[in-house]
Amino acid sequence: MTNIINIFKNKSKYTNTIFQKVKNILQYNGFQVSTSYNYNAFLNLVIGGDGTFLNAVHLSNFSSIPFIGINTGHLGFYQEIEVEMLEEFVDALKKHQYQIEELTVLQSKINNRNINAINEVVVKSKKNQIIRLKVFIDGNFIEYYAGDGLIISTPHGSTAYNLSANGAILHQSLNGFQLTPIAPVYSNLNKALKCPVVLPNDADIEIAVSKRDNHHTIFIFDGREFFTKDYKIKIGVSPNKINKLILDKNHYWTNIKNKLM
Fold this sequence. Notes:
Largest sheet: 11 strands, antiparallel
CATH topology of the largest domain: Tumour Suppressor Smad4
Order of helices and strands: EHEEHEEHEEEEEHEEEEEEH
CATH superfamily of the largest domain: Probable inorganic polyphosphate/atp-NAD kinase, domain 2
Helix content: 10-25%
Protein backbone atom coordinates (compact mmCIF):
# COMPACT_ATOMS: atom_id res chain seq x y z
CA MET A 1 0.00 0.00 0.00
CA THR A 2 1.26 3.49 -0.81
CA ASN A 3 1.37 6.36 1.66
CA ILE A 4 -0.24 8.88 -0.73
CA ILE A 5 -3.44 10.68 0.35
CA ASN A 6 -5.55 12.68 -2.09
CA ILE A 7 -7.08 15.79 -0.52
CA PHE A 8 -10.25 17.45 -1.80
CA LYS A 9 -11.45 20.70 -0.17
CA ASN A 10 -13.82 23.59 -0.65
CA LYS A 11 -12.66 27.19 -1.03
CA SER A 12 -13.55 28.63 2.36
CA LYS A 13 -10.88 30.34 4.45
CA TYR A 14 -11.62 28.12 7.43
CA THR A 15 -11.25 24.96 5.33
CA ASN A 16 -7.93 26.21 3.95
CA THR A 17 -6.68 26.80 7.51
CA ILE A 18 -7.63 23.24 8.48
CA PHE A 19 -6.09 21.91 5.26
CA GLN A 20 -2.71 23.45 6.14
CA LYS A 21 -2.91 21.93 9.62
CA VAL A 22 -3.90 18.49 8.27
CA LYS A 23 -1.19 18.61 5.64
CA ASN A 24 1.48 19.34 8.26
CA ILE A 25 0.27 16.55 10.56
CA LEU A 26 0.11 14.00 7.73
CA GLN A 27 3.55 14.87 6.38
CA TYR A 28 5.04 14.80 9.88
CA ASN A 29 3.68 11.25 10.22
CA GLY A 30 5.19 10.07 6.93
CA PHE A 31 2.25 10.46 4.56
CA GLN A 32 2.43 12.15 1.15
CA VAL A 33 -0.29 14.68 0.30
CA SER A 34 -1.62 15.19 -3.22
CA THR A 35 -4.00 18.06 -4.03
CA SER A 36 -4.65 16.65 -7.51
CA TYR A 37 -6.18 13.21 -7.96
CA ASN A 38 -3.50 10.50 -7.81
CA TYR A 39 -4.63 7.02 -8.91
CA ASN A 40 -1.94 5.46 -6.71
CA ALA A 41 -3.27 6.98 -3.48
CA PHE A 42 -4.73 4.76 -0.76
CA LEU A 43 -7.17 7.35 0.62
CA ASN A 44 -9.34 10.24 -0.56
CA LEU A 45 -9.58 12.79 2.26
CA VAL A 46 -12.34 15.41 1.91
CA ILE A 47 -12.24 18.66 3.90
CA GLY A 48 -15.54 20.54 3.92
CA GLY A 49 -19.20 19.61 4.24
CA ASP A 50 -21.50 17.11 2.56
CA GLY A 51 -21.52 19.10 -0.69
CA THR A 52 -17.72 18.93 -0.83
CA PHE A 53 -17.86 15.18 -0.21
CA LEU A 54 -20.34 14.63 -3.05
CA ASN A 55 -18.30 16.87 -5.34
CA ALA A 56 -15.14 14.89 -4.55
CA VAL A 57 -16.85 11.64 -5.49
CA HIS A 58 -17.95 13.10 -8.83
CA LEU A 59 -14.61 14.81 -9.55
CA SER A 60 -12.80 11.52 -8.94
CA ASN A 61 -15.24 9.73 -11.29
CA PHE A 62 -16.58 7.60 -8.43
CA SER A 63 -13.15 6.41 -7.37
CA SER A 64 -12.69 2.98 -5.81
CA ILE A 65 -10.15 4.52 -3.40
CA PRO A 66 -11.81 4.86 0.04
CA PHE A 67 -13.15 8.26 1.12
CA ILE A 68 -13.24 9.87 4.55
CA GLY A 69 -14.19 13.43 5.48
CA ILE A 70 -13.14 16.16 7.89
CA ASN A 71 -16.14 18.33 8.72
CA THR A 72 -15.70 22.08 8.23
CA GLY A 73 -19.26 22.56 6.95
CA HIS A 74 -22.62 22.70 8.65
CA LEU A 75 -24.35 19.31 8.92
CA GLY A 76 -21.48 17.13 7.69
CA PHE A 77 -23.38 13.85 7.65
CA TYR A 78 -20.76 12.19 5.45
CA GLN A 79 -17.87 13.77 7.36
CA GLU A 80 -16.91 11.58 10.30
CA ILE A 81 -13.88 13.52 11.57
CA GLU A 82 -14.41 16.71 13.56
CA VAL A 83 -11.61 19.29 13.56
CA GLU A 84 -10.63 18.53 17.15
CA MET A 85 -10.09 14.85 16.16
CA LEU A 86 -7.22 15.40 13.68
CA GLU A 87 -4.46 13.87 15.79
CA GLU A 88 -6.70 10.96 16.76
CA PHE A 89 -7.59 10.38 13.09
CA VAL A 90 -3.96 10.26 11.91
CA ASP A 91 -3.03 7.94 14.77
CA ALA A 92 -5.85 5.53 13.82
CA LEU A 93 -4.73 5.73 10.18
CA LYS A 94 -1.16 4.77 11.08
CA LYS A 95 -2.37 1.84 13.21
CA HIS A 96 -4.91 0.70 10.57
CA GLN A 97 -7.68 1.03 13.14
CA TYR A 98 -10.58 1.48 10.76
CA GLN A 99 -13.15 -0.38 8.71
CA ILE A 100 -14.22 -0.04 5.07
CA GLU A 101 -17.93 0.34 4.37
CA GLU A 102 -19.49 0.07 0.91
CA LEU A 103 -21.97 2.76 -0.16
CA THR A 104 -24.60 2.21 -2.85
CA VAL A 105 -24.34 4.04 -6.17
CA LEU A 106 -27.38 4.74 -8.35
CA GLN A 107 -26.92 4.42 -12.10
CA SER A 108 -29.32 6.23 -14.42
CA LYS A 109 -29.63 5.80 -18.16
CA ILE A 110 -30.74 8.69 -20.39
CA ASN A 111 -30.13 8.79 -24.15
CA ASN A 112 -27.85 5.74 -23.80
CA ARG A 113 -25.72 7.77 -21.39
CA ASN A 114 -25.02 6.47 -17.88
CA ILE A 115 -24.99 9.00 -15.01
CA ASN A 116 -24.14 8.02 -11.44
CA ALA A 117 -25.27 9.43 -8.10
CA ILE A 118 -24.55 8.46 -4.50
CA ASN A 119 -27.23 10.53 -2.73
CA GLU A 120 -30.24 10.77 -5.00
CA VAL A 121 -31.74 11.28 -8.42
CA VAL A 122 -34.53 13.88 -8.58
CA VAL A 123 -37.09 14.40 -11.33
CA LYS A 124 -38.85 17.75 -10.94
CA SER A 125 -39.93 20.96 -12.63
CA LYS A 126 -37.51 23.86 -13.04
CA LYS A 127 -40.53 26.15 -12.67
CA ASN A 128 -43.26 26.45 -10.07
CA GLN A 129 -45.43 23.90 -11.90
CA ILE A 130 -46.50 20.34 -11.32
CA ILE A 131 -45.22 17.58 -13.57
CA ARG A 132 -47.00 14.44 -14.70
CA LEU A 133 -45.07 11.19 -14.83
CA LYS A 134 -45.64 7.54 -15.66
CA VAL A 135 -43.76 5.28 -13.25
CA PHE A 136 -42.77 1.68 -14.01
CA ILE A 137 -40.99 -0.73 -11.65
CA ASP A 138 -39.36 -3.78 -13.22
CA GLY A 139 -41.39 -3.10 -16.36
CA ASN A 140 -44.70 -3.01 -14.48
CA PHE A 141 -46.77 0.15 -14.72
CA ILE A 142 -47.29 1.42 -11.16
CA GLU A 143 -48.78 4.91 -11.22
CA TYR A 144 -49.70 8.11 -13.00
CA TYR A 145 -47.92 10.61 -10.80
CA ALA A 146 -48.67 14.34 -10.59
CA GLY A 147 -46.94 16.71 -8.21
CA ASP A 148 -43.66 18.51 -7.62
CA GLY A 149 -41.52 15.50 -8.51
CA LEU A 150 -39.95 12.25 -7.40
CA ILE A 151 -36.79 11.42 -5.42
CA ILE A 152 -34.92 8.16 -5.87
CA SER A 153 -32.43 7.88 -3.01
CA THR A 154 -29.78 5.51 -1.73
CA PRO A 155 -29.76 4.46 1.95
CA HIS A 156 -27.09 7.05 2.82
CA GLY A 157 -28.91 9.63 0.69
CA SER A 158 -32.14 8.90 2.57
CA THR A 159 -31.18 11.41 5.30
CA ALA A 160 -30.86 14.28 2.79
CA TYR A 161 -33.56 15.65 0.42
CA ASN A 162 -35.49 12.39 0.78
CA LEU A 163 -35.98 12.95 4.51
CA SER A 164 -37.24 16.50 3.90
CA ALA A 165 -39.89 15.02 1.59
CA ASN A 166 -41.06 12.66 4.37
CA GLY A 167 -39.12 9.70 3.03
CA ALA A 168 -37.92 6.95 5.35
CA ILE A 169 -34.43 6.73 6.81
CA LEU A 170 -32.72 3.59 5.51
CA HIS A 171 -29.64 2.33 7.31
CA GLN A 172 -26.68 2.68 4.97
CA SER A 173 -25.83 -1.04 5.23
CA LEU A 174 -29.14 -2.04 3.61
CA ASN A 175 -29.19 -3.43 0.07
CA GLY A 176 -31.97 -1.33 -1.40
CA PHE A 177 -33.08 2.12 -2.44
CA GLN A 178 -36.17 4.31 -2.17
CA LEU A 179 -38.75 6.09 -4.33
CA THR A 180 -40.32 9.11 -2.60
CA PRO A 181 -42.99 11.50 -3.96
CA ILE A 182 -42.58 15.27 -3.53
CA ALA A 183 -45.91 16.95 -2.74
CA PRO A 184 -48.09 14.58 -4.81
CA VAL A 185 -51.44 15.77 -6.17
CA TYR A 186 -54.30 13.29 -5.82
CA SER A 187 -57.27 13.11 -8.18
CA ASN A 188 -59.29 10.62 -10.21
CA LEU A 189 -56.79 11.06 -13.06
CA ASN A 190 -53.62 10.86 -11.01
CA LYS A 191 -53.72 7.90 -8.68
CA ALA A 192 -50.33 7.84 -7.01
CA LEU A 193 -48.88 6.16 -3.96
CA LYS A 194 -49.02 8.34 -0.85
CA CYS A 195 -45.86 7.00 0.76
CA PRO A 196 -42.27 6.09 -0.09
CA VAL A 197 -41.56 2.73 -1.71
CA VAL A 198 -38.47 0.78 -0.65
CA LEU A 199 -37.05 -1.42 -3.41
CA PRO A 200 -34.43 -4.19 -3.53
CA ASN A 201 -31.08 -3.65 -5.21
CA ASP A 202 -32.05 -5.60 -8.32
CA ALA A 203 -35.14 -3.47 -9.07
CA ASP A 204 -35.32 -0.95 -11.93
CA ILE A 205 -37.39 2.23 -12.02
CA GLU A 206 -38.40 3.79 -15.32
CA ILE A 207 -39.98 7.25 -15.43
CA ALA A 208 -41.57 8.83 -18.49
CA VAL A 209 -42.40 12.55 -18.46
CA SER A 210 -45.64 13.67 -20.15
CA LYS A 211 -45.14 15.65 -23.38
CA ARG A 212 -46.91 18.67 -21.92
CA ASP A 213 -44.27 18.90 -19.20
CA ASN A 214 -41.16 18.20 -21.29
CA HIS A 215 -40.09 21.82 -21.55
CA HIS A 216 -39.86 22.46 -17.80
CA THR A 217 -38.66 19.10 -16.41
CA ILE A 218 -35.10 18.57 -15.19
CA PHE A 219 -33.15 15.64 -13.80
CA ILE A 220 -30.87 16.29 -10.84
CA PHE A 221 -28.02 13.98 -9.80
CA ASP A 222 -26.58 14.78 -6.36
CA GLY A 223 -27.54 18.42 -6.87
CA ARG A 224 -26.21 18.59 -10.45
CA GLU A 225 -28.86 19.59 -12.98
CA PHE A 226 -29.14 17.75 -16.29
CA PHE A 227 -31.28 18.80 -19.26
CA THR A 228 -32.17 16.53 -22.16
CA LYS A 229 -34.62 16.22 -25.03
CA ASP A 230 -35.23 12.60 -24.07
CA TYR A 231 -37.66 12.59 -21.15
CA LYS A 232 -37.34 8.96 -20.15
CA ILE A 233 -35.00 7.84 -17.43
CA LYS A 234 -34.19 4.39 -16.11
CA ILE A 235 -32.69 4.11 -12.64
CA GLY A 236 -31.19 1.18 -10.79
CA VAL A 237 -28.35 0.24 -8.46
CA SER A 238 -24.92 0.22 -10.06
CA PRO A 239 -22.67 -2.85 -9.65
CA ASN A 240 -19.98 -0.41 -8.49
CA LYS A 241 -19.73 0.87 -4.92
CA ILE A 242 -18.11 3.77 -3.13
CA ASN A 243 -15.77 2.73 -0.32
CA LYS A 244 -15.92 4.81 2.85
CA LEU A 245 -13.37 4.55 5.62
CA ILE A 246 -15.04 4.29 9.05
CA LEU A 247 -13.22 4.92 12.33
CA ASP A 248 -16.18 4.43 14.67
CA LYS A 249 -18.74 1.69 13.91
CA ASN A 250 -21.33 3.70 15.89
CA HIS A 251 -20.77 6.86 13.84
CA TYR A 252 -24.03 6.38 11.90
CA TRP A 253 -26.21 6.40 15.02
CA THR A 254 -24.22 9.26 16.54
CA ASN A 255 -24.98 11.23 13.37
CA ILE A 256 -28.69 10.43 13.56
CA LYS A 257 -28.87 11.51 17.20
CA ASN A 258 -26.67 14.62 17.05
CA LYS A 259 -27.44 16.00 13.60
CA LEU A 260 -31.01 14.99 12.79
CA MET A 261 -32.82 15.07 16.13
